[in-house]
Amino acid sequence: EVELRNKALLQQKRRLKQATQFVHKDSADLLPLDGLTRLGTSKDLQPHSVVQRRLVEGNLNKLRGESRVPSPLAKDQGEKMEKGEERRKETSPLLIQCQCQGQVLKATVNTGCLPNLISKSCLNQLGLQEVSAMDCGDLSPPIPSVVGRVEHVELQLGQETVLCSALVVDDEMLQFCIGLQTLLSLKCCIDLEEGMLRFKALSQELPFLHASEEPGQ
C-alpha cells in the first residue's frame, strides 16, 4: 500500500510539472498540450511559440468579431453630436423678432458686420426713403451689394424703440441685419445657452428664433 501510494504521488507530481512547465512563457497551462509534442527542433515549432501564435490568432479573431458590434459609447457620442448640430442649425443664423414702422421683421444678429443692413425690398415694404448711394470702398470690410443708405430707422426691440441708420443692400436673403456698432451701443449680450439676446442698455431681452419660424409666431 505504501508503494502504491508513493507511485501515485510521483505520477501526480509529474502530471502537475508537465501541465505547468510553460506558465512563465505563454500560459500554456490554459490550453490543451496534446499535439504539441515531437514538433522538432525548429524555434517556430516549439510548444511556447505555437501557444503564442494561437493566442495572437485568437485575440485577432475576437477583435474582428467585436468590431462588427457598435459601441454603446460611440452611439451616445453620435447622438450628442447630432443633437448639437440640430441646436446649431436652429440658431444659425441668429434671428430675433423686432418691429419697424408697425411691421414685424426677422432681424439677423451679425457681429462680423459693423453697420446695420437692410434689404432694398424691405426698405420699400416699410416705406422708408433711401439716401444717396454709398461708395463700397469706404467700408471695412467692403460690402459689394450696398446700393445706398437710410439714416433714420426706428426699431422696436421688446418694449423699447431705438433710432439707428442702415446700409441698403441688394440682397433678398435678409430683411434687416443688426450690426456690431448697434450691438455695442446697446450693450448686447448673446446668450447661446439660453437662446437669448439681452439688451442691457434697454433692460430688454429677446429670444432667438428658429430659422424656419415666421415673424409673429
TrEMBL record:
Which spans does this entry mark as compositional bias, Basic and acidic residues?
76-88
**Region annotated Disordered, chain positions:** 63-88
| All residue ranges annotated as the Aspartic peptidase DDI1-type domain in the record | 94-191
Kindly name one Pfam family recorded for this protein.
Asp_protease
The molecular function terms in GO held by this entry are:
aspartic-type endopeptidase activity
Coiled coil stretches, renumbered:
none
Annotated GO biological processes are: proteolysis
List the SUPFAM superfamilies hit by this protein, alphabetically.
Acid proteases
Report TM segments.
none
What is this protein's name?
NRIP2 protein
Native source organism of the sequence? Podargus strigoides (Tawny frogmouth)
The organism that produces this protein has a lineage beginning with: Eukaryota, Metazoa, Chordata, Craniata, Vertebrata
